[in-house]
Amino acid sequence: MGSVRWMLAKDLRILRRSPALSMLLIIYPAAIAVLIGLALSRGPGLPRVAFLNEIPPSRAVITLGSTRIDTTRYERQLFEAIQPVRVSSRAQAIADVRDGSTIAALIMPADLPHLLASAATSAYVQVIYNGDAINQSLVETAIESKLAQANALLAVQLEKVAGSYIDLLLSGGRLNFLGLAFNVLGLRDSAQILDGVLSGLPAHSPLAAKLTPVAAFAKIAVNNLASAKAVIGAVGAPIVVHQQTIDGRRTPLDFYAVAIAVTISLMFVCLLLASGTLALEREEHTLERLRRGLVSPSALLGEKSLLASVCAVFVGFAMLAGIGIFVPLDWGRAGLWLLALLGGALAFATLGVALGGLVRDVRAASLLALLVSFPLVFLALVPAGSVAVGLYDAIRVVSAIFPFKAALEAVDAAVNRSSPSLWAALGHIALLVLGFGVLARVGLRR
Amino acid sequence: MSAATLQAQSLTKRFGERVALRDVSFRLESGEILAVIGPNGAGKTTLLSLLAGAASPSSGEVIAPAGERIGWVPQHTAVYSKLSVLENLRLFARLERVGDPDGAVALMLEQTGLRERAGEQLGRLSGGNRQRVNIAIGLLAQPAVALLDEPSASLDPRQRERLWRFIAARAQAGTSIVFTTHDIAEAERYAARVLVLADGELLFSGSPADLRRHGSGDIESAFVNFLRDRGH
């Protein structure tokens, strides 16, 4: 233990005398914490979209039966998803998209109210993109999501109109058409009148024989039209989503992003420090001296791992505290945060010393650490169902062999109470620490 | 001759297919100064690494009396550039578990003439001064055997003279010295015995005077003649 203490003190002194690295260790988590906090607490900026409304103001309101639908209401709804730049013509809209001043153009054609009112064909809005795949995806998602909401609201309005006509047919009432008012009898009253007439006729009257099927039809029509209202309601929203989450509580995306950011920082600090400090021993040729029995290989690897882990836990906790300013985190679980951070840090640090044992200088160690870590992050974040089943199984195996996924699960469980549990993740981490510890011992013998 | 302080028995070291050292045996007497010379790639550094315990032999063994310390000064300066002279010495004194680390450090600073530069970071020192620290670290624990791999390589003549005076004093105090060098005249001047290695084989073990007999001129010519006669 004595040699570990002296080596730790030495490495800390060297760190203190490396101002660039020390500043990076302080500034990096602070900057990341602030950026993530701002990103999570403020919504994304709206895409600038050229907007042309070709609907004459006089035709902006359409009348369906007794219901008036104001199309400008849907225009306002679309504006929640975009930053509109009003233009006066299609040519100007296209020019704006071409020169990049807007990333798309949205055109509401003049016949939109007419098509909505006629219900013969679907009404449409036109969107013009500049061909940039990312921008197109951004605008497409924003507009389609708002358009879906507008469609849903419109369906409700149309359902009301259809429902009022059915009520009129069933129960009767006054109908206004082309400025004229009519009294409509209604199927229920018709059936009652027919029943009254039939009861007053002699039993074998030829008229009764003719009216009986008409009265029966009126009753069937009353019953079925009453059901039709419910059917129209269902057609307005044929499928609604009833959410059910299996396998424990899942983390909301905002909070999951916090866990990802902290784990990535933990990984970088640990991998770079652990691999770098071990590689420095080779670079300075001091490893040969130490290997002569001054410090045992296990003690040396343990010292480097401990140093990297303690620094990374400090960085990770500082990040959580920083993000906590913007996002409400449960400080009552701070003890579990520390446990998860320490577990994750130890796993990354052991991987770091395994990498550091393979190379001869600090630069190579840093490069190797970055080369290894980036793909691991991407692989661990590939969602199930986004790739072929066989490929996803392979990704799961690779993610299980390296520490990022396990560390992310531990941090997520500690911060967000997600599943799998913190203890399961820590068990996985313990196995990884053991495995990479053995590899590091082998690497150090080189 | 006094008792042996170190023995190499049939030392062989392989790096894959390549044999860096082949069946090398010799014994080192107490207080003896032994020079290991040979062309580049002869196996000098490998031999000292094996004797120092910094590497393990593929076969054969190194026998050292139990409890005796072996000091090692590697060819490359093995020091921490971000630490000062004092911090480097103090760290290694503690890692070597020297009884009185501060006393040993103070003595070594005095003997190597580094006291004035004790507070300076190694990275800011000249190659010669870094080598002095390298040597000081190797000898901090007052070892019974000191293994020095090209100790004078980066020293100027004045520093070199001071180094050899220091080593001679150590030898007189009973420390056995093994050093490697490319400077054959230096080997003749300071060593009592010379080992000649070539391609990993021990070709000669004897006094510098015996080696000189292989040529008519100076010892360097004799050394070259010797190697040529042996097919190297």
Provide the descriptors you would attach to this structure in a database record.
heterodimer, A: 446 residues, alpha/beta, abc type-2 transporter like fold, 3 domains, 4-stranded mixed β-sheet, two-stranded antiparallel sheet, 8 strands, 68% helix, elongated, B: 232 residues, Rossmann fold, 2 domains, 6-stranded mixed β-sheet, 3-stranded antiparallel β-sheet, 8 helices, globular
What are the SSEs and their pairings?
The complex is a heterodimer of chains A (446) and B (232).
Chain A: H1 2-16, H2 19-41, E1 48-53, E2 61-64, E3 67-70, H3 72-79, E4 83-86, H4 90-98, E5 104-108, H5 112-118, E6 126-129, H6 133-171, E7 173-177, E8 180-184, H7 187-199, H8 206-236, H9 253-283, H10 286-294, H11 297-323, H12 334-356, H13 362-380, H14 389-401, H15 403-416, H16 422-444
Parallel strand pairs in A: 1-4, 1-5
Antiparallel strand pairs in A: 2-3, 5-6, 7-8
Chain B: E1 4-15, E2 18-29, E3 33-37, H1 44-52, E4 59-63, E5 70-73, H2 85-95, H3 101-111, H4 127-139, E6 145-149, H5 157-172, E7 176-180, H6 184-190, E8 193-198, E9 201-206, H7 208-212, H8 219-229
Parallel strand pairs in B: 3-7, 3-8, 5-6, 6-7
Antiparallel strand pairs in B: 1-2, 1-4, 8-9
Helix pairs in contact in B: 2-3
Describe the structure.
- The complex is a heterodimer of chains A (446) and B (232).
- With 446 residues, chain A is an alpha/beta fold.
- Chain A is built from 16 helices and 8 strands.
- In chain A, a hairpin with a 2-residue loop joins strand 7 and strand 8.
- Chain B has a 6-stranded mixed β-sheet with strand order 5-6-7-3-8-9, sandwiched between helices.
- The mean pLDDT of chain B is 91.
- The A-B interface holds A 2-3, 6-7, 10, 13-14, 17-18, 284-286, 288-295 and B 49, 52-54, 72, 74, 76-83, 87, 91-92, 94-97, 121, 137.
